[in-house]
Amino acid sequence: MTNFLKNQKFFQEDKTFSLSKSIKKEKRRNQYTIEFKFGSNIDVSKLKQIIQVNQQIPAYIPIDITFRLESDILIPFQWDASLQLGALAIDPISYNYRIVKYDKQQNNYIFYFEPIDRPFTPLQVVKNTLEKYHPSLGEQFELFHYKLLCKDQITVATEQEIQEYENSIKNSFAVYIQKKQKGRITTLIKSINCQYLQLMGINEEILQDYLNQTGLLPWCFSNDNQQFMSLIRGMFQGACQQVNSSMQAINFNGQKFEVKITPKIFHTYNQEDDSYIQFMFFQQEYNYQIMSQNQIAQNMSEYFNLKPKIIKQDMIEDDISKRCKYRKI
User: Fold this and answer.
1) Dihedral sign, CA of 285, 221, 93, 57?
2) What Rg, from alpha-carbon coordinates, does the chain have?
3) pTM
4) What is the predicted pLDDT for the residue at 188?
5) Comparing C-alpha atoms, which of 104, 103, 100 is closest to residue 113?
6) What's the rounded Cα separation, in Å, for the pair 175 and 192?
7) What is the pLDDT along the chain (329 residues), one digit of tens a residue?
8) CB–CB of 237/230 below 8 Å?
9) Residue 309 exposed, middle or buried by CB count within 10 Å (0-12, 13-18, 19+)
10) Domain-by-domain residue ranges, the chain?
11) How far apart are CA 176 and CA 191, in angstroms?
12) Are 223 and 231 in contact (CB under 8 A)?
């Protein structure tokens, strides 16, 4: 069984177990509650032992620019640049999903999602919005929406086929694992590898801190107005028709460069609940010299605002006899 199939099944089993198990907790006193007898002399020194805990509240996605669709199409509209990771945009999946678990297995980083509870957007609203950018964009979106939900042309793959493709991946990649059921698509898992982090110009330490601070995922594609139409056209055509395309990517430093994207989609069928699991792979080929490990280390220093420790060589004395001195009294 492939690693991604294992992760998907583990996610479903773990979620089912979490929902079904009952948790019983014994009542206990608040550890910060200090009891005093009425009328007694209160020793306020005990109050100084209480530690104040500060927690940063994660940022949220403004609802007025968020679309939620049955087809789970995520459109990368730009919002609040202060939440970006360097020059990286925010992964559109963060618009409608929260990360409930984060894991690393060998070379892969795995993010488990649950949908944010908000009403679905009427299809015509999204279509009209996209037509403001280009007249044909709304029609392309509508065709893509219905094609994703259609089950008539789905070809079911074997686990061996998915395993062979998974083992053949040598490039940077991202994979989305989604569930199709009752006319609705839900994203369960996204996974990326270390090469994908290099493409973005970051490392695991930066990624972990950014996740903890914001609860969002970074994205390696520019979504400014000039790139907007070509970007979502590539999404609509490439993901659906599984044709190779070239798109402009962006890294932490703001460098823009061409990336060749190779999509590949597999489906498995679950007879028990009449659902399909969709594996959407996107391989990225790019010039690895654009972002070296030294540059990523510098990006990490910039992100955490670290200052290098400078040791003055003229202050170091090699003569051991001079390191310890005494004065005669």
Assistant:
1) positive
2) 26
3) 0.74
4) 96
5) 100
6) 7
7) 456 556 655 555 555 444 344 334 444 555 555 554 545 555 555 544 444 433 444 555 555 567 899 999 888 776 677 788 999 988 989 989 999 998 998 889 999 999 998 899 999 998 998 888 778 888 888 888 988 888 887 889 999 999 999 999 999 999 999 999 999 999 999 999 999 999 999 999 999 999 998 899 999 886 665 566 666 766 676 555 666 778 889 999 999 999 998 989 999 999 999 999 999 999 999 888 888 999 999 999 999 986 554 444 444 444 443 434 444 45
8) no
9) exposed
10) 3-17+55-122+148-307
11) 7
12) yes
Q: How far apart are CA 310 and CA 307, in angstroms?
A: 9
Positive or negative: CA dihedral 190, 192, 196, 201: positive
Rounded CA separation 80/303 (Å):
18
Tokens (6 digits) for 173: 């990649």
**What's the full length of the chain, in residues?**
329
Rounded-to-integer distance, Cα 65 and Cα 78, Å: 9
SS in 3 state form for the chain? CCHHHHHHHHHHHHHHHHHHCCCCCCCCCCCCCCCCCCCCCCCHHHHHHCCCCCCCCCCCCCHHHCCCCCCCCCCCCCCCHHHCECCEEECCHHHHEEEEEEEEECCEEEEEEEECCCCCCCHHHHHHHHHCCCHHHHHHHHHHHHHHHCCCCCCCCCHHHHHHHHHHCCCEEEEEEEEEECCEEEEEEEEEEHHHHHHHCCCHHHHHHHHHHHCCCEECECCCHHHHHHHHHHHHHHHHHCCCEEEEEECCCCCEEEEEEEEEEEEEEECCCCEEEEEEEEEEECCHHHCCHHHHHHHHHHHHCCCCCCCCHHHCCCCHHHCCCCCCC
CB 177 within 8 A of CB 279: yes
Place of tokens 């698509």: 185
